[in-house]
Structure formats: C-alpha cells, structure tokens
Amino acid sequence: xxxxLIIKTDGLxxxxxxxxxxxxxxxxxxHGATGLLxxxxxxxxxxxxxxxxxxxxxxxxxxxxxxxxxxxxxAIRSKIGYMPEYDALDDNMDxxxxxxYSGELLGMNPVVAMSRAHTAMEYVGLGELRYRxxxxxxxxxxxxxxxxxxxxxxxxxxxxDEPSNGLDAESRQAMLTTLSNxxxxxxxxxxxxxxxxxxxxxxxxxxxxxxxxxxxAQGRIEDLKAIDREIEIHVWGxxxxxxxxxxxxxxxxxxxxxxxxxxxxxxxxxxxxxxxAAETGAQIRRMHEYEASLEDLFIVIMxxxxxxxxxxxxxxxxxxxxxxxxxxxxxxGSGA
Amino acid sequence: xxxxxxxxxxxSLDRKATAIAEFTMRQYRTRLSTxxxxxxGFLAISVVLLFYIDAMNTEIEAIDNDGDSLDWDGDGYVNxxxxxxxxxxxxxxxxxxxxxxxxxxxxxxxxxxxxDYDWDYSDGSRLEVGIDDDGDCNNSSLPxxxxxxxxxxxxxxxxxxxxSLSGSYFVYADPYVDEDPDEDRxxxxxxxxxxxxxxxxxGFVFLLSIFVPLxxxxxxxRDEMTSGTMQYMTAKPIARGEIFLxxxxxxxxIVWPYLLVVCSLLAIVSGFMGPGDQIFRFKDxxxxxxxxxxxxxxxxxxxxxxxxxxxxxxxxxxxxLPIAAWELGMALLSMTVPESTFLRMSIVGWSMSIIDSxxxxxxxxxxxxxxxxxxxxxxxxxxxxxxxxxxxxxxxxLEWAQSDLGxxxxxxxxxxxxxxxxFCQAVFFWFIGQLIxxxxxxx
Amino acid sequence: MIPDLAQExxxxxxxxxxxxxxxxxxxxxxxxxxxxxxALGGISLALSGGVTGILxxxxxxxxxxxxxxxxxxxxxxGEVRLFGTNPWKNPAPYxxxxxxxxxxxxxxxxxxxxxxSTFARLHGLTRDEAKKEANRVLEFVGxxxxxxxxxxxxxxxxxxxxxIAHALVNDxxxxxxxxxxxxxxxxxxxxxxxxxxxxxxxxxxxxxxxxILSEIERITEQIVILHQGRLLAIGNxxxxxxxxxxxxxxxxxxxxxxKALAKDVLSLDMVHGxxxxxxxxxxxxxxxxxxxxxxxxxxxxxxxxxxxxINNPDDDxxxxxxxxxxxxx
Amino acid sequence: MTEESPxxxxxxxxxQGRMDAAWGSETGDHAAVAQSVxxxxxxxxxxxxxxxxxxxxxxxxxxxxxxxxxxxxxRKGHRPWGVxxxxxxxxxxxxxxxxxxxxxxxxxxxxxxxxxxxGVGRNNLYAHILGFFPRNMLFYPLVAALLVGGVISExxxxxxxxxxxxxxxxxxDYVGMKYLAVATIQSFIIIGTLFLYYxxxxxxxxxxxxxxxxxFPMFLTTVFxxxxxxxxxxxxxxxxxxxxxxxxxxxxxxxxxxxxxxxLAAIVEGLFxxxxxxxxxPYDSVAHVGQSLIGTNVIYEHPWIWSLASVITINAISLYVxxxxxxxxxxxxx
Lengths: 336, 443, 329, 334
Prior knowledge:
The complex is a heterotetramer of chains A (336), B (443), C (329) and D (334).
Chain A (H helix, E strand, L loop, with lengths): L4 E12 L2 E7 L2 E3 L2 E5 L6 H8 L7 E6 L2 E2 L4 H7 E4 L11 H10 L5 H14 L15 H13 L5 E5 L7 H16 L4 E5 L3 H7 L2 E6 L2 E7 H4 L5 E7 L2 H10 L4 E4 L2 E5 L5 H12 L2 E8 L3 H11 L7 H4 L4 H5 L12
Parallel strand pairs in A: 4-9, 4-10, 7-8, 8-9
Antiparallel strand pairs in A: 1-2, 1-3, 1-5, 5-6, 10-11, 12-14, 12-15, 13-14
Helix pairs in contact in A: 3-4, 3-5, 4-5, 9-10
Chain B lengths: L8 H22 L1 H26 L21 H7 L40 E4 L14 H4 L10 E6 L4 E6 L9 H34 L2 H9 L2 H5 L5 H34 L11 H28 L3 H21 L11 H15 L3 H10 L19 H7 L9 H28 L5
Antiparallel strand pairs in B: 1-2, 2-3
Chain D lengths: L14 H9 L6 H7 L21 H14 L11 H13 L2 H12 L2 H7 L3 H9 L1 H18 L3 H6 L2 H5 L5 H35 L3 H35 L4 H25 L9 H13 L9 H24 L7
C-alpha cells in the first residue's frame, strides 16, 4: 500500500525556537482527494511549506511523489501545483498573463505557456474574463485565477489552501466541482485545507486533522463519522408550544430558533413528533434524519482538546440590563 | 452630541485628540522603521559632532602672518627682534648681540601670534581700535606720517568703518598693527560658530526636518487608507479633519522630543567643548534655542505637507521629491543670498531666517568678526606682506554657514514674522489636506 | 436622545423627521457607480430594529451599501439617512453606530484591549471609562482571556470578534457587520453567531452581510436580497417566499407508502398537484404553504402513515435567491 | 464503529457529546442544500485537458523572470511598472540625451569652439555618467529608487512571492534575476545613452580611426564607471527593498541614503574642510573612483583607493543584507 501514498512523512517536526509548529507528524496521504483540517494556527501552512521543501524540517523525514522533501524541493515543486490561501496575484496584470507567467516560471516556453494558460483559464471557468486585469476581479475570480496558476502544468498533486474562502455559493460550487474534476477526470490528487467542512466533505474522501502541530485524526471521512441518530425538524409557528409538548412526551429536544433536533428513540419517533405537531398546530416545514457532518466531527474532536463553544447562555451570565447601566445615554445606551 | 455631566465640547475634543495622538505614538513606537530613521538621523548629526569635537581638540597651527619669526641673516636673532632694535635684517654682522650690554636672542615663538586682535564689538559706524602689542609700529623707525597710514591723526591704530550698504566693515590699518593674529583663538571661535550655524541650518532644518517627516509623516493617512485600517477610525464620530490633525499631533509628539534631545545634546557638548575662558558658553544657548524653534516648525510644516501629499495621491511621495530638491536649492540659496525673493516661496528659507535672527542677537559682532577673518592681519584681502588671500582658518566655514538677515527687518521682527509664516503654511497644508481627505472615498 | 434635538428646535428648522420616528437606516433611490461599473442602482429601503441579513452574491453591492451608510462613499444619486441624518462628511450619526468592516487588516501592533479602548475614547469617553467599556465588550465577545495579547497573533475568528467588540463599545443602536463570519473556523463562527443573535435580542438594529446562506438563516429571518446592485427582496424569508405565489411551493415527503399518503393529502383543497418521483417519495405542490403544513401532521397522525422525511426544498435562502435572480442572469 | 475510529481511542464519543457538539453548529441542512444545487440551474461544463509536455531547465526559468521585469517597461503583459515610473524613465532618458542633442546641433552648425564644449572628451564623458547636478541629484537616483522600490517588497505585499517559491526557483535565482533586470533597465538609460553619445559624435563629426583609438580606452573606462554606479545603486536599493514591506519606503530610503550622506559630507567639508566623510556617500565614492580613472579633475583630498574600497564595502554590505533577507523571506503575504 505504501506505493499509493503520494505524501508520506515520518516523525516530521518543525520548531521555531521554543515554539513547535509541527510535532512529530507521521502522515500518509493517499492518491485522490484529501482534506487537511485544523483550527487557525494548527500548523497547516507550516506543513504545506515543509512538504514543498520551502522550509527545512527540524527533524523527521518525508517524501512527496517519491521525492525527499529535504533535498529534492525543486523536483517536488515542478510536479505539484500550490494554491496559497492569501492573495498571490499581481493586481495590475491581466489574468491570462499572470497565468502564463506562472507557467513560464515552471520552465515552459512562452508559447507553450500561453496556450496552456488559455486552457487553464477555460478550465476554471474564466474563459471570457481572461483579458481583464486582476484588480477588476471578484474574490471568486481571483481564487479561480490562483487555481489556474497552479494547474497550468497539469501537476500530479494540487495543494490548495482554503480554496473556497470568501466565495459565494455559486463560485464555491464551481471551485469544488473543478477540484473534484481534477481528481475524477484527471486522476490527479488534491490536498486541500479548508474551514468549511461541507467543502471538504464534498471533494474529499480522506481527511487529516491537525491540532497544535499534532496529528489529531486521519482516515476516511465515513469511518470517522459517528452514527448517533437524531431527527431534525424546522418548525414554523408555535415552536415553544411544540417544544413543550415534545418534552412532555419524553423526547429529548434541542432547540435553536426554529430548528430543533430530537434524539431518535425507536421507530415511532417521527410519529410522536408529528403527533405533537398536530396537537399544537405547529407547522413542520422540514423533518429528516440528521446525518452528522464533518463539522460536528471537527467540533467533537476540538472539544476533546479543550476548545469550548461559547453559548448564548455564557454570554448572558450578567443580564443585559445590568450591562447597559454604565453606558451613557448620549451614546445610545438606555441611560440610568 | 455629548452634553452629559457638564462636559463641554472641549473636554470631549481633548479626549479624542489624546486618544488618536497616543494611538499614533504607539504605532510609531512599535515600528522598527521609526527607530531606524530616528537612529540614522541621530547618527548623522553625531558624525558632524565628532568632527567638531576633533576640530576643537586640535590646536590650529600658528602661522607667522608677518614673517618676523624668521631669521633671514642667520645670526640667531629673529627678524622681529632685530627690527625692534633697529639692526639690519639681512646682515649677519648686525644684531642686538653686539650691543653693549649684549642682548640675548629671543625665541622665535615670541614672534608668532604676538600681535593679536584687540578689537571689541561696538555698533558705531566708525571705530578706532587696535593696539600695537609688540610695538613694531610704535618703536619702528618709520616716519610718523607712515605710522599714521590711515590719516586719522593717531599713529599705530586701526580705523573700522561700517558700510551699511554691504553690511560689512572696511579696515583701514596703520602698518604693523594687529598684524599677527592668533589663528587658534580666531579659528576655534569661527569654527565653533560655523558649526552651530551649519549644523543648525543644514543638519537640523534641512536634513532632519525633511527626511524625518518624509519617512514618518507621509504614511500617516495614506498607509492607513491603503491597508484599509482607516475604516475603523472613520467609522467613529470624529471629523476627518480632526483625524488628520490628531495624527499629526501624535507625529509631533514623537518628533519634537527627539529634536529637543538631539539639539540639547549638541548644545551641551558644544557648550563645554567650545572655545573661551568660561566653562560653559551660556550665550550660545540662544542660538541653539532658535535652531530648535526653526527645526520644530520645519518638521511641523514638512509633516503637514507630506501628509497632505500622501492624502492627495497614492503616489504623492513622488511629488515630495521635487519639493525636497527645491528645498535643497533654497537652503543653499538662503546661505548665500538671504534676501532672494525665491526664499519666500520655500519652507527652509523662513526657518533659516529664524536661526539667522538668533545668531544676530547672540553674536552681534558677527560682521566685524568675519571681517577680522577676512582681513587676517592685513594678509587677507590686502597683500601687505606676502600678498594673496590668506584668510584666517575657520573664516571660510563661517562665511559659508553665516548669512545676514534677508528680510530687511530687525532680528525680533524677522523671528516673529518667520514663525507666523511657518504656522500659516502648516495651517494651510492642514486645511487643504483635510478638505481632500474629507471628500475622499474610502474603499 | 429625542429631547435634545427637540429643545434646540433643530428638528423643525432642518425639516428632519423627528428621531423617534425616523427609521434607523433609510435609503432613498440610492445609487453608486465606480466609473462605468454600477455597484448599486437606485435602492430604496428603510430598516429599524432586529437583525437583518443582507444577502447577495459576491459583488452584489453589499459592502458598497454599508460603506454608503458609513459615509465612506458618496452616493452618485439619491439620499442616505442614518438616524435621519446624512452620513456623508458628517460623523455625527456614527456616535450611535458600530461598524465592522470586511477588511481583514487590523492594527496588528496593538492588543485587543488597547484597540477597543482607543476607539472607545473616540466616542468621548475618558481613559478610565474607555478601559472599563473595553473590558465589558471584550468579555461580551469572549476575548477577555486573551485581550492583552497583540492582535497580530490572533486567529481570524478572534480578530473578527475583536472587530465586533470595537464596534460595540459605544453601546450602539445600529450595528453593521460586513461579512463577520468569513474565514472563521466552526468554533469561532458559532460564537460570533451567538453574539449577533444576542445583540438582536437586546433590541439593537443589526445589519449583517454574508454570502453563506445557511449562516444567515441561522441568525435571522429578516432579510434583504441584493443582486447586481439591485434590491430584489426585503422582508421575512418566509413571507418573501409566500409572495412568490406564481411559483408553487414544493413539499417532499418520504414515507413507506406514498400512494396511500397521496390519497389523504389530496383531500386538502390547497393541494394542486402531486408527483411520485419513486414509490416511497411524494412531491406535493401547493400555493398555500402555511395552511398545508398546519394540516399535514394531523393527516399523517390520523391515518397512521409512517413518514420519515418532510422536506421543503424551496423554503431556504438559496432557492429564494435562485428564484429571484433567475430572471436576471 | 466508533470504537475503531482513530479519533476515539480514550474517551468514547457519547451521544450526549455528539448532540452538544452538533448543537452549536451549522443547521445540518447541507443535505437540503446539496439537493437544491441542481435546481438553481448550475451547469458547470469542464473538459479536463491533460498536458504531458516537458519543462525546461533552470536557465529558462531564470530567463522568464528577467524577461518579465525588463519587458514590463515597454510591453503589456509583463511586470506592470507604475505609470509614474514609466514617465520618469522616459523623462530621464530624454534628459540624459541632452549632450547627444547638443553634439548633433553643434555638428550641424559647425562651430568648433561650441563643439569643443559639448563633444566627447574626458570631462563630458565623466559628466554624462557621474555629474552631480542634475544627473546624480535628480535623475539617476530617482530612476533607481522607482525601479527598486517595489521589486521585492511588492512580492511580499502582493503575496506573489508564493508564485515564485512554490515553483522550482531557488532564492538565489530569484533575487539574482531581479537584480540583473533592474540593473539592465538602468543600463539602457545610463550606458545606452553614453554609447549613443559616443557614436553620434563619431558619425556627426566624421571621426577617424586615430581619434577612436585615442578616445576608446577613456570611453571604456567611463562604461566601467557607469556599471559601478548602477551596481552600487541597485545593491543598496534592493537591500532596502528586501527589508521593507511597502513600495515607497525603499525608494525614499535609497534617495535618503544617496542624498543624505552627500549632504552630511558636504556639511563636514564646509565646516571643517575635510573630505574624508565623502567615503560614506556612495555617489561620491563612485565619483571619486571615476574622476581618478577617467582622468578628470579630482575634487577629493583622500586617495581614490579609499573610495574604491568604500564602494566595494557598501556593495558587500548591501548584498549581504539582501541575501540574508531573501533567504529568510517567508512564503506568505505580509
């Protein structure tokens, strides 16, 4: 199986003085799409830089596409496409030229680079916009241009850092479809980091979860998901009454606004819910079995590392009225 | 808006002002570039100071301006002694040693710098000064008519006439009077004054006052706008003009103390190192004070100007470069032709006239003093002994650094006018700057 | 607030709407063009109270709208009123506004506490008051344990919360949040959402923009939909949907025996169409969604149908946006 | 299933915990979202086109960087130099051809005495490259400042450094090519016009071989001095560009270094009549070397070897700073 691993690290450690950015990471990334998760500052970017051979690991070793990350950085970087998280484009250039230049930097002839740039722009869906300056692009177009830059030489592996960050639903979908296409149609590999769990779920089969430089979890998404069952309902009108009725019926209810989740307790649960709804006259706009998402998984794992989710109740520890008193009236406070 | 707890509009203004000023100061403090710029500026001024200290500690070689320490005939008696006793300078067989009783030869050093200036300052238009210290006029064998070369009725003296048109003195001297001045005494004093004026004008008012604001003030508004952090401040109930002004206050709160420290350091060091009998030259503090005032105002005006340029255009800094070049030209012009009209269209011109006024008040003898250096015991402008401009050491530096009051007004009036004009310039730039800033769209 | 203006007679003089009645935010035919590009074209709306989500794709004009409200931009046409005052070149109304810009750049060299208290002082607070206020709002957004660390070391979520804190420091009546959830990890997102919901509950007017539909849906149902600089819809999410009566609502029901359920459902007169995508799936089309949903549970319970899933696929923001914008693409 | 998953080694994820976790999170109606995607009419056609071409070796990549920067001055599609930069370049190019124009003019008029004033000679060759006013006070430092200003720092602020470093380009090539490109653009202006001046003189006056043999060594020396000047300005400028983030700081700092040290040395010379401080002024050091090599009137008192040593030291320090900064440059947006 080890032949299938496109990225393999063994005890990879990187420290900046006393601060340990990567702590003894042993990761194997298989061919196909993999999501790299972790809260901000978990060491995702450091990991990327290390496997790109841009920074030297303090200890440990690794290979990317069969090349040693310590010595063969140039070879690795010829074969992968890296799409950084932040803006990495010259605002004053036309998109097509930026992409072409990024191909030239890989060692393509200007002519070849130009034709590949057209192909890549077409592929990411910017065909008609390619002659426009990047400064006139929206975030989505910029992200697409960055992707085009990184796939111009049709790399074996695409490393995408937050590819859907800041995109609206439509462009996000486009970005994710493009990435999945790379995997399915092109048989390439994708390693993507993202905060939006939906995205990772949509594109990736496997995930690697980092936390504070340590490996928190890795494996197939399906394997990692827990199988607690809940029923989610969206209620419209009479929500409080319904909540009370459900509680009386002995069902465990969590409510957030007009959304409720009810613990699945046997076959008749949906029936009991609908019965309560019929009694109270609440409209159940939606009802379905709730499938745990990657986001839940993320939160579960994070909670085990001691990150609490601050709830409204915590925020309300002191009543709102008490807080308002010391704000002067002139500034819009309620006044004393 | 704020009418609570008996607050006036001033107290709330004051709070905003200190808040933004403190904010700006903290921003400067956390930036490495601030310290680099200020450090380099300090270093540059210190280099000049080191040269000054070196010059003050080096004895200026005494020159025998009248040549009487030589022994032409090699009889062991220098010319001056032979001249005094009336023996033949060129005859080795004629010297005071043959007198009865024989006179011992005097060392040559007695005849170097033996007839120094003893002119004092007086603001009369015509003075009679000069004592023939070594007696080579009074005791010489010259006829009385030649001893009174300047025809004032008194032999062996010097008549100075003040020419109000050129602002300088004419020297009418009898022969052999004050003809061998003390180079070291004159040179030290001249170099000291030249140093204060030169470093004040070019060091403080030009170098520091242009480059420090260029680095520190240009970005005050522009950097915040390009990075987008101006969004936070402009979303608060404070007028944009106030933001502009208070940011400037923060800038001044960094730059002004810095100038004060550097200026005081130089004033103290040069006060102790300077020539003269007293331990500390208290009088010079007046000049330093005027230098400080000029530098403070110059940094204010330049700061406003560059901040305004930064608001005006993203590439406003490029406009600052021709302005800086113009100011350099004006700085040099004001040191040579202080009455030029062009200077009125500059910032350095006005700042330097403050320094000149200060120097005029502290050293009222400046015109006479430079004339001393130029005359150099008669060897300077008149070819008396050796012929050809041998000004005293330090004279050229002083002449370069010093200039007259160009406005045709008295020193106090010049100072007041310059301060007012500089203030008006600052207010003008602030006003235009805030007008533009106000109508700027912050994207 | 109101007496101040009244006793100075300003309200009458300048023909202001008395503040009590003036909507917090009022736009009258407001347009903004950058060169040839039109960011906003003739928008009129009035908002006060509660959380309102401003929704639209990237480039729909959400940020432009906020910047017009904050007097950062000058409208090319129409008038903007914030508490009845024009905000362009007039900082007075900002005393009651908190603004969280989209911009990610912050004063990285300050601590969050310094950041918040400095900007509190711009509201005219004294140093001590400002410090106290900063403590309060930072506590409120949940940053009190890290507030003395430099902002440069914060993660995106913490930065967003610091920005929200700075906007809350004057206890504003109107809070404008431009993409407050962008780039945050799930933990931070949840916290920020709670903060926003809480602000709405405290009776503040909150304007919030996002392009992630589910996020807005979780915070508020009061929405404004912008598309390519035009106002597409305003009001309650469901009300908007119900207004779109020409498009029938679809309800998907999954149950053991779809045909049997269909029979019972057909007895409801508001149903005007049925579809069977598969043997266990039923699609119901109706023009009267509320009425249908009110009666549906009873039918199911009474007839002992075994229903697993009820889905209302076009009741969420995304589909509404799809319906509304469909004509313009 | 939970027992086997790697996340759950020590504490089992209880239903309660799951519920809490799921609770504060997203609606979970992503299933609904996924279903509605086709309904919005999202059609996304993509044709994956593989590419199996070979990549060229290192020198080709380096050539791409060089080309990108140099061609950007004249053509669109390469590095976008700012409009003010281009305007200043054109202005300086024209301004530094004044001597060419005057040579032509007087050759046409045929007035020998005027011609002597402007034709090729030691002093004029020196003045073309190293004259202080206006060339080295206003023109050449300004050109260097504008070129050098953003060349590295903009990569840091735009984040485009990632474009280079995530590709098979090492730091040395990156900075070396930028250096060469910036120096080349300056050479077009400074040395290019010098060549033009020399050849216009030959053509306009119909110079013979004897004259050319006579003046050619002098001319070559001038070219060498010009190269020294360009290298010095570029080294200092790039070092400053590598330490800063902004585009303007390096430019102003370069001008401050060049003109500030000159002013400082001038103050010391004016006050104390010592020229030694000119050693810290890059311009004056190069000028001193130039005066000695070209053979014009030397206006400095100290030996010219000191100035040469100073030029070498200044360059060495700058290049050291540059290499240290570039090798520690973060691949991120700053």
